[in-house]
Structure formats: structure tokens, C-alpha cells
Amino acid sequence: MIDTKKAGRPRQFDFDKALLQAMSVFWMKGYDGASMRDLTAAMGITGPSLYAAFGDKRDLYLKTVDHYCVADACTPLVVLEAEDDIEQALYGFLNEVIRTATGHESGARGCYLASSVTASIGQVDGLAERVEAVIADAEDRLAARFQREIDKGTLPQNFPARERAILLFDIRQGYMFRGRAGWSPDRMHEDLSARVKMLLST
Asked: pLDDT-based confidence at 162, cuts 50/70/90?
């Protein structure tokens, strides 16, 4: 007979908050360096609760990667796509990149994928495919935003949309590296206008 009271018992913790706390541990210690004791302590849950809600350590790690890609890595892209003026869209994108590189709610700086996750490729099954998909999706969305301007006529037909998308993605990663190195937002904003002009140059 099924214990319906036990089966229907609600979680005693905030799933998204616990996931963010786990990500903070992985971000600081890496996949190998983060022990289950570290994770349960940071998440404020027991081992059985962790396994029941998130699966094993690998499952939890992949969930933190997926969460970051949806909640953080995509935010600058959403800003870029929402702004109609391409110059302002690029400023918005880069401003959001700088904000996330220096003021993530976890307290970490830089990019979770570049700073921590990529070091685990080859050790965690399913990780390389996720990172490749993130890069491809980001570059496709960036290229589509430039293509939108070509279709509108605000950029010339021979504008290299794909090449500039790749350049913009690489600029994003450069800002993330600077954030990881401790650069302040003010320092990173100093060359913003020059980068926007470079991205739109024909």
C-alpha cells in the first residue's frame, strides 16, 4: 500500500534557490572539488533530499549548467533582441554582459561556463554537447539580430552578419574574463563605444 501522505509531502526547500547555491559551490570549487557534503551544506538540504530532487552529483551539475544558460547567459541576448535600434541594442547587450560579469547574485564573477564548466569537459558525460549547443545557439541569435538590420536596410547587404556575431560573442567572453580578474564595471565601460562602432563598421 502506498503511503499517500509521504508521497504527497511538499518539498521543504526552494528548488531554484538550492540550485543557485549548488552552482555557487561548483563555480568556486569545480566539479571534482565540490563534495556532496559541500553541496548539501550550501543548499541546506540532506543527501536524500538532494538525490530525490536533483539526482546524483552529475545530474545536479548538469542542472546548474542548464539553469545558468537559461537564466544568465541568455539575458544579454534577450536585451539585444528586444531593442529595435541596433546601436542601442549592442550597448544594452554589452552593458548586461558587464553587469552579469561583475554582479552575479551568487557572488561569483565572470562566466560560469568559461570560468568553471569548460574545465570539466571530458570528465562529465553530456557536458561538451551542452556547451557546444550554447555557443551555437548564441552565435545564431547574434547573427539573426544583425541579419534583421540587413533586411531593414540599416546595414548593407554585404554586412558580415555571421562574422560580427562571432566577434560579439568573443567580446562577451573577454568581458567575462575581465570580470573574473576583478575589473570594475566602470573600467570595463571605458571602451564600450569603441567596441560598438567596431561591431557596426562597414
From this structure: very high
Selection from 198, 189, 167, 26 nearest residue 92 by Cα = 189
Estimate the share of the chain in helix, then strand, then coil, as percent rounded to the nearest 5.
Answer: 75, 0, 25
- Phi first, then psi, for residue 137 (nearest 5°) are -65, -45
How many angstroms separate the most distant Cα atoms in the chain? 72
Please answer whether residues 42 and 25 qualify as being in contact, where contact means their C-beta atoms are separated by less than 8 angstroms: yes
Would the pTM of this model clear 0.70, i.e. be above it? yes
Q: Is the pLDDT of residue 199 over 50?
A: yes
Tell which residue, 98, 106, 66, 107, has the closest CA to residue 173. Answer: 98
Q: Which amino acid is at 13?
A: F
Q: Which three cell numbers stand for residue 142?
A: 547574434
Mean per-residue pLDDT, 30-57: 93
Alpha-carbon gap, residue 124 to 64, rounded angstroms: 13
